From TrEMBL:
Record bears the keyword Protein biosynthesis: yes
Positions in coiled-coil regions: none
Known function: Forms part of a macromolecular complex that catalyzes the attachment of specific amino acids to cognate tRNAs during protein synthesis.
Species of provenance: Thlaspi arvense
SMART domains membership: Arg_tRNA_synt_N, DALR_1
Matches recorded under Gene3D superfamilies: Arginyl tRNA synthetase N-terminal domain, HUPs, Isoleucyl-tRNA Synthetase, Domain 1
Residue ranges of every copy of the DALR anticodon binding domain listed in the record: 473-588
Classification via Pfam families: Arg_tRNA_synt_N (PF03485), DALR_1 (PF05746), tRNA-synt_1d (PF00750)
Keywords assigned by UniProt, alphabetized: Acetylation, Aminoacyl-tRNA synthetase, ATP-binding, Ligase, Nucleotide-binding, Protein biosynthesis
A GO term for molecular function: arginine-tRNA ligase activity
GO cellular component: a single term: cytoplasm
Arginyl tRNA synthetase N-terminal domain span: 14-100
Protein's UniProt name: arginine--tRNA ligase
Broadest EC class assigned to this enzyme: ligase
Length: 588
């Protein structure tokens, strides 16, 4: 059974839904299954949009109501009294506008300052999830697409972890393809003594891959040997297994550098891991009558697709789909995951839709795609260069990710030096800040776009200190922190004893946005769109600016209250940074 719906203390939308649930039932007792529809309001802080829907169901059926407006009025009058709501009014065809009580808002923020931001975390109905992300292919290349997967997947994992879900962060590396035959054979040729092969000897694994590939394409004897090598590897020949392990190890070291720079945690369970389980899983599908013979291969026909899903190749070998079906089986049955999320480019959407469908047919997953256990393919667009073409660097056709990250850091360091920070700070501090800003910029530039669109990679844009960039946001946070420091007040003491008042419009607008944090994270989680969180963060920083330019903090009669509002803003910003995998800076 799923975890029970908990009390969402921080989630305003949810709390209003509860109130309006009562009024919807009181207003339309004979209309079953009406769910309260609460949205951010155009006129109030929130609005309830149920009047029109209810009207459509009751009009002409002897109702006492004369119009949707009358329904709206009834909804308004039957909202239970709550300290949360200051007032309601009805507008237009029947929207119920809700104005929140400033006193209640202040109290809620005071509570968060005392109990911590974790009290504003969402509570999805799952205990354990798998996030399958990054997942490059060994020896082939780790390209910018894998960088996107790494960044987006990490944020999704972080949001779920914040929601107290146990997340299995899975690196589903491609370590079992037929490419290994030629790689191993090439390794034997170049280094007859395999044991002595080191990373430096092979040098660039991508170049090594290319060389072996061109030999494979041009030399029929080599090709023949490579094909036999695959058979021997998959048959478990120890010498071939050893050579395979060596190549994987070298690749792994290369990937690890990227993960370390990005501070992304991943646990590798590559394609090879699932290999021993494939035959029994295919057999299960077969016994359910799903698998059919087609041109020597074994396939699953699926409604709505014009090609079948191949699960055993005509040579008897397994493929990407056999592995993914097996990995899904493993995650559901062995790992007991209730939500499995795959992060890859949108180009693989059909593959995912197909094996998800096969799993539903096999009864592994419920028919409806929003019920648990649930699977989601989180697809993202291409990374393009400033010329709108697939991203490449000047010299080579592949972009080395480590170089890319290094460049972001170098550029942000240069910018800091231009501002004289090398004279002000220790070299360590300069380096750490350059890293936080540089890597933060790369991550934020990626995450802020709706992931399904192509994303244009531009250092100049992402490192701009104005506009919707990590640099701007990190600076904003640093400024807030220094205001608190400059006040000379003990903020931890103030949090316990100080009172918040929201009398100025700038204060109220900022507070309202702070209170929307919980519902925003929940939305970003359910839609699996990190961009929702980025938009929230940018708006938070804008509202803070408006507040700060209209409301004097230090030395004003409202100093305590306003310092608390600064502190609450800094806390929420830091939590956003944390969820986006960005390291905050405190001084700039
Ligand atoms: N290795 C694949 C690629 O680079 C991505 C794997 C994604 N995960 C999965 N379970 N299929 O395209």
């Amino acid at each position: 059974t799923m975890a029970a719906n908990q009390e969402f203390t921080g989630n305003l939308k949810r709390q209003l839904e509860k109130l309006f649930d009562v009024s919807v039932k009181a207003t339309a007792p004979d209309v079953p299954g009406v769910k309260p529809l609460i949205d951010i309001g155009k006129f109030g802080d929130y609005q309830c949009n149920n009047a029109m829907g209810i009207w459509a169901k009751i009009k002409g059926k002897g109702t006492q109501f004369k119009s949707p407006l009358a329904v709206g009025q009834a909804l308004m009058t039957s909202v239970p009294a709550s300290e949360m709501v200051e007032s309601c009014s009805v507008a237009g065809p029947g929207f119920v506008n809700v104005v929140l009580s400033a006193k209640w808002m202040a109290k809620s923020i005071e509570n968060m300052l005392i109990d911590g931001i974790d009290t504003w975390a969402p509570a999805p109905p799952v205990k354990r999830a798998v996030v399958d992300f990054s997942s490059p292919n060994i020896a082939k290349e780790m390209h910018v697409g894998h960088l996107r997967s790494t960044i987006i997947g990490d944020t999704i994992a972080r949001m779920l972890e914040f929601s107290k879900v146990e997340v299995l962060r899975r690196n589903h590396v491609g370590d079992w393809g037929t490419q290994f035959g030629m790689l191993i054979e090439y390794l034997f040729e170049k280094f007859p003594d395999t044991d002595s092969v080191t990373e430096t000897a092979i040098g660039d694994l991508q170049a090594f891959y290319k060389e072996s590939k061109s030999k494979f394409d041009s030399d029929p004897v080599f090709k023949e040997k490579a094909q036999q090598a695959v058979v021997r590897l998959q048959g478990g020949d120890p010498i071939y297994r050893k050579a395979w392990a060596k190549i994987c190890e070298i690749s792994r070291t290369e990937f690890a550098m990227v993960y370390k720079r990005l501070r992304v945690e991943l646990e590798e369970k590559g394609e090879s891991f699932y290999n021993p389980y494939i035959p029994s899983v295919i057999e299960e599908l077969n016994s359910k009558g799903l698998v059919e013979e087609s041109e020597g291969a074994r396939v699953i026909f699926l409604e709505g697709f014009n090609i079948p899903l191949m699960v055993v190749k005509s040579d008897g070998g397994f493929n990407y789909a056999s592995t993914d079906l097996t990995a899904l089986w493993y995650r559901l049955n062995e790992e007991k995951a209730e939500w499995i999320i795959y992060v890859t480019d949108v180009g693989q959407q059909q593959h995912f839709n197909m094996f998800f469908k096969a799993a539903r047919k096999a009864g592994w997953l419920p028919e409806s795609d929003k019920t648990y256990p649930r699977v989601d393919h989180v697809g993202f667009g291409l990374v393009v260069g400033e010329d709108k073409k697939r991203f490449r660097t000047r010299s080579t056709d592949v972009v080395r990710l480590v170089d890319l990250l290094d460049e972001a850091k170098t550029r942000s360091k240069t910018a800091l030096i231009e501002r004289g920070k090398d004279k002000e700070w220790t070299p360590e501090k300069l380096d750490q800040t350059a890293e936080a800003v540089g890597y933060g910029a790369v991550k934020y530039a990626d995450l802020k776009n709706n992931r399904t669109t192509n994303y244009q990679f531009s250092f100049d844009e992402m490192l701009n200190d104005k506009g919707d960039t990590a640099v701007y946001l990190l600076y904003a946070h640093a400024r807030i922190s220094s205001i608190i420091t400059k006040s000379g007040k003990d903020i931890d003491e103030l949090k316990k004893t100080g009172k918040l008042a929201l009398d100025h419009e700038g204060e109220r607008a900022l507070a309202l946005h702070l209170l929307r944090f919980a519902e925003t994270v929940e939305e970003a989680c359910t839609t699996l769109l990190p961009s929702v969180l980025c938009a929230y963060l940018y708006e938070l920083s804008n509202r803070y600016t408006t507040f700060y330019s209209n409301c004097q903090v230090i030395g004003s009669p409202e100093e305590t209250s306003r310092l608390l509002l600064c502190e609450a803003t800094a806390i929420v910003m830091r939590k956003c940074f944390h969820l986006l995998g960005i390291t905050p800076v405190y001084k700039i």
